[in-house]
Amino acid sequence: MRIDILSAVPDLMQSFFAHSIIQRAQERNLVEIHLHNLHNYSKKKFKQIDDYPFGGGAGMVMAIEPILTCIESLQKERNYDEIIFMTPDGELLEQKMVNSISLKENIIILCGHYKGIDERLREHIITKEISIGSYVLSGGELPAAVLVDAVVRLIPGALNDETSALSDSFQDNLLAPPVYTRPSDFNGWKVPDVLLSGNDKLIEEWRYQQALERTKKRRPDLLEND
Question: Is 126 helix (H, G, I), strand (E, B) or coil?
Answer without folding.
Answer: coil
